[in-house]
Amino acid sequence: MKEILLAGTISTLLSFALTPTFIRFLAARGYGQQIRDDGPTSHHVKRGTPTMGGVVLVIAAVLGYFTSHLINGVRVSASALLVIGLVLGLGFVGLLDDWLKIVKQRSLGLRAKQKLAGQALVAAGFAFAGLHFKDSFKLTPISFHLSTVRDTSLALGTGFVIIWVVFLVLGTSNGVNLTDGLDGLASGTSIMTLLAFVVIGVWEFRQSCGLGSVEVLTSKCYMVRDPLDLAVLAAAFAGSCAGFLWWNTSPARIFMGDVGSLALGGAIAGLAITLRIEMLLAALGGLFVIITMSVIIQTLYFKLSGGKRVFRMAPLQHHFELLGWAEVTIVIRFWIIAGLSVAAGLGLFYAQWVTS
Q: What is the H or E stretch that residue 145 is in?
């Protein structure tokens, strides 16, 4: 348990301390955010604000995780390493997107198909590796069974698991990316979701099945590989987000950019998949789902109605901006929604254990 506190504390301090230095580095080179001309006019004052802050966020989380293990003399787990690999891969795709925006001085970097292809390739590699790294009890980081709040009896083939994981990773990483539109919204929301993974990881560790148990589908225990170490990793990312949020809150001095939002989405999806609570993502990441759905609804209705809109602008947070809500008001109210969603997800997780 000490690793959880150490990882969270170290990553928070690193993120808090390194971000101002990174801000000065980016500002000195003119690496600032490009703003969409068709977006809310209130965002034009943000043009030029340093971006790609997700680089510090990811570095602080990874260093916090590894340092906590080094101090305590504990070995890192295969599950956590796979999630870190997923985060770094998606972060690289986001970094490339951010870099193209800066170099070309436009609000669009990679083409949508290019970005999705890069994300899918990284997610597929994560899924394939997660199905083949077996421990001495032949337990893999990623399950061959469909997971809700735990593994179900529905077994999937390797191909279906990979497709399912790619879908979850793309949905979550792009959901966080769409949420990253207001100062502190994505980072604050991610903290809540990541802390829920800490709770779930510790609970699964405490209620873990005995080594080699075959009663995974009928008992209350959890057959999850490395749940405690995944909780440590979740704490590291939550702490890194907290340190970054200090500088990212309104008025933001730095944005996380796609490198941050895609990496954070990867961390959230990867943790849910390896903790085997995949279907809980809809609740634990409830705000991400709502915002993503607003974009899907807007796009479909626009095409089907011949140019009409449901919202004044999508994603949803910009709709409320155009209604006249203050940015801080939107962020706080959306945080409340995110908190309620996380509470509902944790309630569903615990209710399943009580009633099983």
A: strand 145-147
Listed residue (148, 143, 169, 147) closest to 158, CA to CA: 143
Count Cβ neighbours within 10 Å for each residue of 237-267 and write b for 16 or more, e otherwise.
Answer: bbbbbbbbbebbbeebbbbbbbbbbbbbbbb
Cα four-point dihedral sign 293, 294, 298, 301: positive
Least Cα distance to 176 among 59, 270, 48, 36 occurs for: 270
Q: What are phi and psi of 313, to 5 degrees?
A: -160, 145
Domain boundaries, given as residue ranges, for the chain: 2-283
CA distance 72 to 56: 24
Q: What distance in Å separates the CA atoms of residue 133 and residue 110, rounded to the nearest whole number? A: 33
Distance CA 54, CA 275 (A): 24
Q: What is the pLDDT of residues 226-277, one digit of tens each?
A: 999 999 999 999 999 999 999 999 899 999 999 999 999 999 999 999 999 9
Contact 248, 256 (CB under 8 A): yes
